[in-house]
Specification:
about 425 residues; 15 helices
């Protein structure tokens, strides 16, 4: 098969393997850290979590980076991306260790959130940098396949990290602090792995960078304007980002719903609820893996927008069909479908942005991409908080999400037809 042949060629490229290894360790640490935070906020015996509480936690951790995102993009287009991975992961290892200390200390809750916020801040640079660096180690011919393998492998690593976090809690220590320290260790390992690549390998090219940092920061507004103008001129990339934002919104709303179902509707104990959440995360991760296998073939047959249309249309039909029972088995099947849909759409979007956007602008555009991800997820949590009852069962929310998926599918299909005529 051509895909298998291209995959073998891709994996024989040394620098691609090294960049992939940095991603896998970094995102597995993310999975460990996020599960520790989720169990601390949602499943701690002393806390009675609600959709509003979950939405508030997401807003505290994610929304501030909607403001600093453009600055991150300017810096990411200036700093050597290898150095971002090295120092970023070292800093996250230190900050995660501080979070572990705060969990076991009698400190105000805002201080815990401030520490978690700092870890998330650095994560913005690392994730955007990983996407911006990928075209530097992969040729254009195999970029779609690389976007299937690399981000999806990272997502699966995050899922595996989450599973490892659950295992640590069950087998070794029922302690969120111990889990966070495990994440800190993985961040440290990712930092050390980045040293296997040369400083200049991942760009950006020095001749495209302003010579002084003050000049770069002073021109942030102009740079953001130029980046948005550059994106507007790349119609395929801009449209893909808009569609991906709505798909991410739907995924965020359903994530909050599943959290509440696991916490209250499907279980009588916190341990059982965490186990069900672990299963849901694993099933969704299997969907991400399936998307990585199918997306290169699907994009080759029906194009990026065709694949995105199919993903959104399938979700519009299957989400209400499987979810309206609010029973564990069909909802878990829906979690698998949503994994395929969300990751399949992301693979197509990543490729559209990488191929359409010039290297000098990629850091800024991927930072904006990251900001859209955060805003969509937090906005979805806020909407879910308004619609969801305490046990998580809401026909209204499911119907609203299904209509959004359908709107995305119809719009993408129309764009695809118009572009075909032109």
């Amino acid at each position: 098969m051509p895909v298998v042949r291209d995959l073998r060629v891709l994996l024989r490229q040394l620098n691609f393997r090294r960049l992939l290894a940095v991603r896998l360790l970094s995102q597995s640490a993310d999975g460990v850290y996020q599960v520790a935070l989720a169990t601390y906020v949602v499943f701690s015996p002393e806390k009675q979590a609600s959709p509003a509480a979950i939405a508030s936690a997401m807003a505290v951790l994610l929304l501030p980076y909607s403001i600093v995102g453009p600055f991150a993009g300017v810096l990411l287009d200036r700093w050597q991306r290898r150095q971002v991975f090295l120092y970023g992961n070292l800093l996250r290892a230190v900050l995660a260790s501080a979070t572990a200390l705060l969990i076991v200390s009698p400190v105000p809750e805002w201080l815990f959130y401030a520490s978690a916020l700092a870890v998330t801040a650095v994560n913005r640079f690392v994730l955007a940098g990983l996407s911006a660096a990928l075209p530097r180690v992969v040729d254009d011919e195999r970029l779609v396949l690389a976007n299937s393998l690399s981000p999806t492998a990272g997502t699966l690593a995050a899922v595996a990290g989450g599973g490892l976090a659950f295992a640590v809690r069950v087998v070794i220590s029922d302690s969120d602090a111990a889990v966070v320290l495990l994440g800190a260790t993985l961040y440290l390992c990712s930092a050390l792995l980045s040293l296997r690549m040369s400083r200049e390998l991942l760009g950006p090219d020095p001749e495209l960078v302003q010579p002084r940092l003050t000049a770069a920061l002073a021109s942030t507004a102009r740079g953001l304007r130029d980046g948005l103008r550059h994106l507007a001129e790349r119609r395929e990339a801009a449209r893909a980002l808009g569609a991906m934002t709505l798909v991410r919104f739907c995924y965020g709303a359903l994530t909050v719903m599943v959290l509440m179902l696991c916490r209250y509707a499907w279980s009588s104990t916190d341990a059982h609820g965490m186990a069900l959440l672990g299963v849901a995360v694993g099933v969704s991760g299997a969907g991400f893996f399936a998307a990585a296998l199918v997306s290169p073939w699907a994009v080759g047959r029906i194009g990026r927008f065709g694949w995105m249309t199919l993903c959104a249309g399938a979700a519009a039909v299957l989400v209400p069909a499987l979810g309206l029972s609010f029973a564990p088995a069909p909802v878990l099947v829906a979690a698998f479908v949503l994994g395929v849909v969300t990751q399949g759409t992301k693979i197509a979007t990543d490729t559209a942005v990488q191929t359409a956007v010039d290297d000098a602008y990629r850091g800024r555009v991927f930072s904006l991409y990251d900001v859209l991800f955060n805003v969509a997820f937090v906005g979805a949590a806020a909407v879910a908080a308004l619609m969801l009852p305490p046990d998580g069962r809401s026909v209204t929310l499911l119907s609203f999400v299904a209509l959004l998926y359908a709107a995305v599918a119809v719009t993408l299909a129309r764009w695809r037809r118009v572009d075909a005529v032109l």
